[in-house]
Description:
InterPro entries: ExoRNase_PH_dom1, ExoRNase_PH_dom2, ExoRNase_PH_dom2_sf, KH_dom_type_1_sf, NA-bd_OB-fold, PNPase, PNPase/RNase_PH_dom_sf, PNPase_PH_RNA-bd_bac/org-type
Oligomer: single chain
CATH architecture of the largest domain: 2-Layer Sandwich
Protein name: polyribonucleotide nucleotidyltransferase
Domain S1 motif: 676-747
Organism: Drosophila mojavensis (Fruit fly)
Helix content: 25-40%
CATH superfamily of the largest domain: GHMP Kinase, N-terminal domain
Strand content: 25-35%
Keywords: Hydrolase, Nucleotidyltransferase, RNA-binding, Transferase
Amino acid sequence: MIITRKVLKLLNYRLKCNAGARLMNRRCLQSNSNNDVPSVEVSFSNGRKMTISSGKLARFANGTAVCQMGDTAVMVTAVAKAKPTPGQNFMPLVVDYRLKNAASGRIPMNFMRRELGPSEKEILSARLIDRSLRPLFAKDYRNETQLVCNMLAMDAVHSPDVLAINAASMALSLSDIPWNGPIGAVRVGLSDGEVLINPTRRELQSSQLDLVVSATKQNLVVMLEGKGNVVLMQDLLKAIKQGTREAQFIIHEIERLQKAYGRQKRDVDELPEPQAELVQAVKSMCEMRLREIFQDASHDKISRDTAVNEVRANVIDKVWSSYPDLDPAAIGEEFNNACREIFRELIFESNRRCDGRDYDSLRKINCQVDMYKPLHGSALFQRGQTQVFCTVSLDSPESAMKLDTLAALDSGGLKAKNFMLHYEFPPYATGEVGRIGPLGRRELGHGALAERSLLPTLPNDYPFTVRLTSEVLESNGSSSMASVCGGSLALMDAGVPITAPAAGVAIGLVTKYENNDTKHLQDYRILTDILGIEDYMGDMDMKVAGTRKGFTAIQADLKIPGIPLKVVMESLQKATDAKSKILDIMGETIREPRKYRKDCWPVSENLVVEPHQRSQLIGPSGLHMKRIYLETGTTLTPSDDSNFTVFAPSQAAMDEAKEMIEGYMHKERVPDLEFGGIYTATITELRDTGVMVILYPGMPPALLHNSQLDQRKIAHPSALGLEVGQEIQVKYFGRDPVSGFMRLSRKVLQGPAVGIARSLNKAASGETSS
């Protein structure tokens, strides 16, 4: 009994110590402003701070976190169903990201005055969060999971998308949802060779780089997404390394909060292990035939898929006849596993890929420009079995896409986009039947990546709005990077003065590792210019675009929980080498923007109109400008008080519009009036305020005010005996700078003679007749 009491006392003492330690840990983590809310403060190397808290809002969710930097705060909730959906063979993760006007003190300007469907920016941010989190979910996890990103407050300084990634990481870490996090995400900028961590929107406007780095423990990179203004490779590598190191601060603080407040993770409903006999039967029946198919370089996408599907159908039929109790879907799933394993093994064994290339070789590339004469610019880019048709349309600045308030705020104050790239992926591009309807998230993401890749090469002062369409006609891997190559060719064919041609390439990765430890890879192979099947069977899809000098865009998606920095650096080097080879091939077709004009190219000129002539050009209710547009397609846009931008769809239309403008302005042809000159004026009307006079035929009457009629003060012109048709002498003092009206005076001529009066009747009539 004595030993038992001692043991009980010892256990009781340890429990009290552990409880006290947990209490002290919680107090260290609690916010100074609210002791009931656990929170952590992340300090970055540049002194900026980020606060992540949980436990106060939306407590019915499995996990909730609020991330705040400056006055921008984002709440993310994580909710997962208790049981997986029967028959689900993928991880159903949904991320909803909405930019709310109320968070920035604004009202939506649509008809309903409320938030409607997700915008392009919201969809791209949701994809950014999804790609950062998805690789760290358990392989067998099939429960439907939803992350909702709610903007609580938003200032004009910090972007909320990176805060949403970190809040989602915190919410999943504290929840009972099985997730192998946490991760940390930072935005990295580059200014004058100096790396900026989580730069403000103003700093981003002058930054050469805008890169989001998501990383997990041990400096493993999970996701990369960025754009740059032709960033050198060494600067990009430095930014990725620095961003990965800074993300560790976030991970460390989330882990502290997770240890103190995290819920116990629920058990993953592991998929039933297939019978050993089934595994052996499937592999023995398909291995030799699949090896033969994957080593036959004569196969293309269609023939290879057809051959694999024939083997699949044959294996399922034979195995099912031997094991009638098994579900054919289970046999098909086991065949898929064997097919993936064999495909990956062959890459390591033979040092060759399924189409016969080595790891660094490119597919055959063909380029063609100036496809059809009516098009301002066009190009057909073919890389292997990926074919993209690109067209360029040039239009007036009025055709620029106007951004709403929140989109303009997120884009650094940009109110309109004068360069747009629209990506289309019809179902026939993969030989399938499908419905062509609203634009999907994939198309939006690919188009935005290609647009970011080409935007730095366009001039800032280009007078036209540029719309580049990229239609994928055939797809077998990396159609977005083919859009970059084809788009650059089409821009040069349209005569757009780009700074340098741009090209893009996709880099793949196949790895070997054990126990989910991707820090210490047993072996890996980096693949240049991957096929669709290599993307599907592989572990990474890194898309890199840029000019010969540097990078303009990068996007890296992983299927494994992170890769070491060494692999990232090697992949970027492979991409740089491949990019140079592609640019050499493109240069054989067109090397620089087209110099000579096409007949279909639009024309833009500047027209100077004096303020007093604007009404004559515009016409009553804009009648003249409308007539010019309807008859010639030419638009006149006022730039300021005396300048109009004239845009015509062709030179012939511009010439016709000029004739119409000259006709409208012909009545307003005036002789050059000398400032201080004395002229003979004819009275056309008597008014209470003065007399209306003309200096030459066809002139709009000008007012000669009572105060300028005589040195004496008069109330009405009739007091001086003036009549309609009477000629008087006036002195000209130019035009009013605001109204454009003539400034005339008769009073200043009532002293000694100062000059000889001039008559403009003959000169004006002679000029009018000419």
